[in-house]
């Protein structure tokens, strides 16, 4: 009986000690948290009491947004970022495959003016009559060279249903346009049949609407008798992993294609393919601006012996971000994992070395229209089908 009382007393003491120890560590953690935020509170109080101007509501919100952006920036990760409510909505619009603007792509010509190299289908620019090779010489009646190239390009952007005045030069004529900015669907996939029945598909991004565009073009080229495919992901900065998976599915054999490794070393399958597979030779064109999902697309096709890579060393982004909506409508895009194919190692910070490394011709500009006479990388890819 005495032994049982001693054991019971020891158990009670042990439970009390454990509870006190847990309480101590909890309070210690809370204190550390409070110390962190007390520094911010001290700074805020000093500014509120001593800044020479009264802070209005808009300035207060700017302070909060800047503080939160700085907090995430402190991670030292270039891909993680805090998004204001407006920026988050822009991000969601972009990921859906839509954009707000006029729908042109430009490059700087030898005179320093923007030259239109692409006009998006069904865009305000197309509807207004802007054309490829038009030279922008003024925006809002301000000469681009005088006002500044980047500043002028920024002025082309703006809110939906607002107008932007553009002056262009075409065949030695100056033409003025008032273009209304609109939200419209981006065309992220284009395709056509090249010589020798080679199907060419250019993918500029991996958005929500990219999947449907890709599958439609892939099916059409197959029905038209394509004997092989060239997938062009040069200057493709990546996009959605879900879209990538659906696009790879008809191109690869059944199985796990890619995995991701999260916090704590947890690994998950992120790209899986079914048994249906196109059994045709393939080549992927890549360059230094092929990044993220574009690299995983390329690596997957090569690792599963479906394609060779042609071009230059890719960017080297093998980490994945998840974007979450916060309670106030703002957003957080956070790097949460590395990813790689189930065959090879992660290419983060390294990139992919093409099977055939070939530099583009000097002054070559990548456009929406493939031309093997000026595009050395495309010509090399086409030559592979002759062997």
Would you kindly provide a brief summary of this structure?
The chain is an alpha+beta fold and 387 residues long. The chain is 35% helix and 28% strand.
CATH class of the largest domain: Alpha Beta
Tell me the strand percentage band. Answer: 25-35%
Count of folded domains: 2
The rounded Rg comes to: 28 Å
Q: Could you tell me how far the N terminus lies from the C terminus, measured between alpha carbons in angstroms?
A: 92 Å
Low-confidence stretches: 1-6
Please describe the biggest sheet, giving its number of strands, its sense, and whether it closes into a barrel: 6 strands, mixed
Kindly state the number of beta strands: 19
Total helical segments: 10
Structural class: alpha+beta
Name the shape in a single word: globular
**Which strand order does the major sheet show?**
10-11-12-15-16-19
């Amino acid at each position: 009986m005495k032994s049982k009382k001693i054991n019971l007393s020891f158990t009670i003491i042990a439970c009390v000690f454990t509870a006190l120890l847990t309480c101590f560590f909890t309070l210690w953690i809370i204190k550390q948290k409070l110390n962190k935020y007390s520094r911010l509170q001290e700074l805020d109080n000093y500014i509120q009491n001593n800044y020479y101007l009264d802070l209005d509501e808009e300035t207060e919100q700017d302070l909060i947004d800047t503080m939160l952006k700085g907090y995430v920036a402190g991670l030292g990760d270039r891909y993680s970022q805090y998004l204001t409510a407006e920026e988050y909505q822009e991000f969601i619009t972009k990921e859906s495959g839509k954009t707000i603007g006029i729908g042109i792509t430009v490059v700087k010509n030898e005179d320093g003016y923007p030259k239109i190299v692409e006009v998006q289908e069904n865009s305000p620019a197309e509807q207004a009559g802007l054309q490829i090779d038009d030279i922008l010489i003024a925006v809002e009646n301000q000469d681009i060279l005088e006002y500044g190239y980047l500043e002028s390009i920024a002025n082309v952007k703006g809110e939906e249903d607002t107008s932007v005045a553009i002056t262009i030069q075409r065949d030695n004529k100056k033409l003025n346009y008032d273009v209304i900015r609109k939200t419209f669907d981006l065309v992220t996939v284009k395709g056509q049949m090249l010589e020798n029945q080679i199907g060419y598909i250019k993918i500029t991004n991996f958005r929500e609407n990219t999947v449907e565009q890709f599958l439609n073009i892939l099916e059409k080229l197959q029905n038209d008798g394509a004997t092989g495919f060239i997938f062009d992901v040069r200057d493709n900065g990546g996009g959605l992993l879900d879209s990538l998976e659906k696009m790879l599915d008809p191109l690869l054999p059944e199985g796990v294609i890619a995995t991701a490794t999260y916090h704590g070393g947890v690994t998950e399958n992120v790209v899986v393919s079914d048994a249906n597979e196109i059994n045709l030779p393939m080549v992927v064109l890549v360059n230094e601006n092929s990044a993220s999902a574009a690299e995983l697309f390329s690596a997957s096709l090569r690792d599963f012996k479906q394609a060779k890579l042609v071009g230059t060393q890719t960017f080297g982004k093998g980490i994945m971000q998840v974007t979450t909506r916060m309670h106030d409508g703002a957003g957080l895009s956070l790097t949460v994992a590395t990813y790689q194919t189930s065959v090879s190692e992660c290419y983060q910070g390294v990139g992919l070395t093409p099977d055939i490394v070939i530099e583009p011709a000097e002054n070559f500009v990548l456009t929406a229209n493939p031309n093997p006479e000026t595009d050395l990388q495309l010509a090399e890819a086409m030559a592979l089908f002759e062997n």
